Amino acid sequence: MGGKDIAERELFQLNSIFADIFNVIVFNGDQIIATDDLVDVSAKSSYLDQDSKLRELERDVVKLWRRPKLTLSILAVENQTKQDPDMALRCFAYDGLSYRQQMKDRSFGRRYPVCTLVVYYAQEPWTKRRTLREAVTFPRGLKKRMLPFFNDYKLNVVDVPRLTPNQISEFRSDFKAIATHFYNLYHEQKIPTPNDDAQHPEATALFFMNVLGGEFTDNLRDFIKRRKGKVPMNSLIQACYGEKFEQAREEGREEGIAIAKEDALREKGQMARQLSQRGFAPEAIAEITNAELAQVQLWLK
Fold it and tell me: Is the pLDDT of residue 92 over 60?
């Protein structure tokens, strides 16, 4: 499993994050799902293929939504950093196995719905097939006659960079800062990053470092420990950017790449402009790039 997959799964294993995204996306911000109502279940399912061989499917994160003596639903999250034209087929198979498991498990006297959200983070809007109907090819000339008997399936894509500011404002967990970050990456009109203390600073920092293509290091872990877990979200994100910058510089030294002073300044200037586009103030950029404020202001002209 890749680093990004691990970081995304670690994040959504947290009940506060998991409940938050369902409450905002499915219930329009109403606090319907409580964190204590969520129970972890295995993300793995087994099935027999066409050759009667036992195969296994693994989802990203799956939880039971329960109340005392009553299961209300099975909820799942699939993370995507790129588009998959077969995602509707994949989620249809996942959900089908969840229903099959209910049929096999005699301890439940009632059947309950399965709801899957596909959380998508890429720059390009999701344009691939969203329904089973779009994913299959009907026999020529017979589509209209077959459609009334064809059971469709719809993909529920949460296109994070395209969430509206109003939707983002409804989040109550650390996902609010994550959604804000992706919104600011791809929109000229920025919205402020929430500066409440991160509820889960290590998991959130791990997620951001993987988004940036870096690694969660002891430096970041010590940064969080020194603050006894009370880290304002802006400070946490700035620390992640600063750590990524140091890692990139160290990698250059290790590979023996001799960067001239002018080239180093040019790279810092490019990074400063990127940070500015993402909503960072000049003072924060100066701290991240270890540059004078006057130099940062020159880069941003």
Answer: yes
Q: Which residue do the tokens 């204590």 mark?
A: 36
Alpha-carbon separation of residue 112 from 58, 65, 68, 101, 191 (angstroms): 21, 10, 15, 11, 39
Query: pLDDT digits over 108-143, tens only?
Result: 568 889 999 999 998 899 999 999 999 999 999 999
pLDDT single digits (tens) 64-82: 898 877 778 889 999 888 9
Q: How far apart (Å, rounded) are the C-alpha atoms in residues 100 and 46?
A: 10
| Best CA proximity match to 89, nearest among 23, 20, 155 | 155
- Separation between Cα atoms, residue 99 and residue 106, nearest integer Å: 13
Q: What DSSP character marks residue 245?
A: H
What is the sign of the dihedral through the CA atoms of 50, 51, 54 and 59? negative
Break the chain down into helix, strand, coil percent, rounded to 5: 50, 15, 35
CB atoms within 10 A of CB 3: 14
Q: What angle, 0 to 180 degrees and rounded to 10, lies between the N-to-C axes of helices 261-277 and 282-289?
A: 140
Do 88 and 131 form a contact (C-beta atoms < 8 A)? yes
Eight-state DSSP code of residue 131: B
- Nearest Cα residue to 76 out of 112, 30, 124: 112
